[in-house]
Amino acid sequence: MNKTVFYPLLILLLTTVGSVWGQIVVKVTNGQIFVNDPMHRPKEKDFQGVTDSLDRNLVQHPNDTTSLFYRALLYVQFNTFVFNPDLSTNSNATNKLLQAKKMADKADSLKMQNFGLKVLRAQICKELTNRYAPIETWRFNAQQMADRKKRYDYYKMLANNYYDELARLDKRNAYDYSRMKVK
After folding, report:
1. With pLDDT > 70 as the criterion, what percentage of the chain qualifies?
2. pTM for this structure?
3. Domains and CATH numbers, the chain
């Protein structure tokens, strides 16, 4: 191969690989949205540069829907119930999920047209029902249990409404969304 063609082609290939490597890979599988691989939890330290960049961008541009979406997605991925099962009312994980919900709702209110955002909103509400589920009742007094029940019912209603909407929009995967509903 001619050197004048080979070296520019090699540089183009390496530049493309480098730029793709820095992107967050998002997949919707079985009614859930994941970063990279659904079988493995992404490590926060691996995404520290991305989260710092998103946080800086949101300070400068608070209405950037793409940054809101990706930051909310990362909050959810790092704080799912499976990987962080702390149920206390003031847990860091619960607060980050509530922050993710605010971000996703803001992106939606700014008219972001992304199917992944709809899946993300449903998944956040489902995660919040896990946080407020009526388990480990010995940890809470009657007032706290009543408040948790109220929040559980609210997020359950929201999650199920979101999953119903997803089933209407994506009829091919309606079974996955109906399976994700909170019982």
Report:
1. 79
2. 0.81
3. 3-180 (1.25.40.10)
